[in-house]
């Protein structure tokens, strides 16, 4: 099956089942060689390389990285912070600060009564509090609500940014 896709950049492209399989295989293990991928999808290594190049150019494949265990690197606490932004703040500056904060593992602009949902990984509850205090001191926050993960059932690969 071939499906047309639209990416945020506005580029339109076609993804077939081989492209989807390559993406799935790389999601499982990004260390696979072109030859290994080729065997699994029935293409030559050079054909796989061409497809990877196109997937990267279209923004389908954004990056490859290791799956680091956050607890093994000293970050056992996962917290989810609902944030309502203060009126009149520079939202671009807020987004840049969140993107640069090494504790942040995900940030989503959301609908409803909140502005953003931010996921953080930190070493302790004190570090959660430090994160919240820093946001409030910057003047961006009208209110927050924080939830702690008791356990994790499914989690995307962790990006270690220390």
TrEMBL record:
Biological-process GO terms, alphabetical: response to amino acid
This protein's UniProt keywords: DNA-binding, Transcription, Transcription regulation
Species this protein is from: Rhodobacter capsulatus (Rhodopseudomonas capsulata)
A matching Pfam family: HTH_24
Annotated protein name in UniProt: Lrp/AsnC family transcriptional regulator
Origin organism lineage: Bacteria, Pseudomonadati, Pseudomonadota, Alphaproteobacteria, Rhodobacterales
Cellular component terms (Gene Ontology): cytosol
Superkingdom field: Bacteria
Annotated InterPro entries: AsnC-type_HTH_dom (IPR000485), Dimeric_a/b-barrel (IPR011008), Tscrpt_reg_AsnC-like (IPR019888), Tscrpt_reg_AsnC/Lrp_C (IPR019887), Tscrpt_reg_HTH_AsnC-type_CS (IPR019885), WH-like_DNA-bd_sf (IPR036388), WH_DNA-bd_sf (IPR036390)
GO molecular function: sequence-specific DNA binding
PANTHER family: HTH-TYPE TRANSCRIPTIONAL REGULATOR LRPC, LEUCINE-RESPONSIVE REGULATORY PROTEIN
Domain HTH asnC-type, chain residue ranges per copy: 15-76
């Amino acid at each position: 099956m071939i499906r047309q896709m639209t990416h945020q950049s506005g580029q339109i492209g076609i993804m077939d089942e081989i492209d989807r399989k390559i993406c799935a295989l790389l999601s499982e293990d990004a260390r696979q060689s072109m030859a290994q991928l080729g065997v699994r999808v029935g293409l030559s290594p050079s054909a796989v390389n061409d497809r990877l190049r196109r997937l990267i150019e279209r923004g389908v494949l954004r990056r490859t990285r290791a799956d680091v265990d956050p607890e093994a690197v000293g970050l056992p606490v996962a917290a989810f912070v609902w944030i309502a932004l203060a009126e009149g703040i520079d939202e671009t500056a807020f987004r840049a600060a969140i993107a640069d904060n090494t504790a942040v593992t995900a940030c989503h602009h959301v609908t409803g009564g909140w502005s953003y949902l931010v996921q953080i990984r930190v070493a302790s509850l004190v570090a959660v509090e430090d994160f919240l205090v820093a946001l409030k001191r910057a003047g961006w926050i009208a209110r927050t609500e924080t939830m702690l993960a008791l356990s994790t059932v499914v989690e995307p690969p962790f990006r270690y940014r220390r």
